[in-house]
Amino acid sequence: xxxxxxxxxxxxxxxxxxNMLLIPLLKESFxxxxxxxxxxxGMLLAAAAGPLIGLWSDRIGKRLPFIGGLVVLSxxxxxxxxxxxxxxxxxxxVILAFCAYSFLGPYxxxxxxxxxxxxxxxxxxxxxxxxxxxxxxxxxxxxRLYEVGTDITLFALSAGVLLPFIFPLLSAPRHEHLERPDSxxxxxxxxxxxxxxxxxxxxxxxxxxAWFSIGGLFPFLTSFLSSExxxxxxxxxxxFGGSTxxxxxxxxxxxxxxxxxxxxxxxxxxxxxxxxIGCLYSALYGRxxxxxxxGYAGVSVFLLSSLxxxxxxxxxxxxxxxxxxxxxxxxxxxxxxxxxxxxxxVSVALMGGLISxxxxxxxxxxxxxxxxxxxxxxxxxx
Length: 382
Description:
Distance between the termini: 28 Å
CATH topology: Growth Hormone, Chain: A
Oligomer: single chain
CATH superfamily: MFS general substrate transporter like domains
Order of helices and strands: HHHHHHHHHHHHHHHHHH
GO molecular function: transmembrane transporter activity
Subcellular location: Cell membrane
Number of domains: 1
Membrane topology: Multi-pass membrane protein
Number of helices: 18
CATH architecture: Up-down Bundle
InterPro entries: MFS, MFS_dom, MFS_trans_sf, MFS_Transporters
Transmembrane segments: 7-26, 32-56, 63-80, 86-104, 124-146, 152-170, 200-221, 233-254, 266-288, 294-313, 333-352, 358-378
């Protein structure tokens, strides 16, 4: 598991680029609405590819070839904006969004395959912890180098995308091949429907609403802090990275907390706490922004929310791994990626126009409603 955990640093860097840097970079050439649609295009492509990647990884019994292809694509997409061309920037944005969300299926399946001995909560907790801690490291890179130049920042980030993949390659067992029944070779629509039991449907509902809120919030968070609170972009990125660090630290304790409080209860409470914080911040929005510490008030809210997100990230993946049979995990996580990606694609596309019409308060309010609905869905997973 250590090689898989270290390899997930790549995912942390790719998501950090998408969440912290991509929208500000695209806004240099495009309007906020068009920037949102570029990211949405990559996410929609990932939604279409996710089940296919999952199906083929189940069929051949291997995950690493697909993950390796996404790593190379992510590396290329990170370097494209250096060309200082609007077409290249748009293509890089599409590629990065596509790769970030295409990683979800095969890497989650890889973690579930390797974590059988240590347990799903422990395995996903370690991996999600590494993803979020590496996200914090990426924010430090951006903060340190962004003022020096965009090109050197992207070069440094591209190294963080490419190099960690060495670890899962070195740690992979020789001739790794999943044990699965012969029927997997003839996966049909009926087999896919069999995955969709009632608990799984409630799980996907939870994912849709939760990731609608996460996808609508995170890509615009640095823009919110820099425009509404007069915080510099590099400082906003650093605080955003601090929230991912807290999420990562929390994720490492997922197995311990789930054992103490119960997996389902911890999942529901985590989402409920995030929703409550969002309600409070929305109610006090005007008063908080008018104060001298407006930026730090916003940062404090997101730091508190990141504690709940740390548990949610790990528990959601571990829950799905337990709800389906091992030889159907690739397809299940592929279907899961559809719900996650489509919700975020819709959210990102809507938020650009919503911010223009209602401001950032409308964005926060809508995302809060999403977390409320996610908590209600989580409570129905049996």
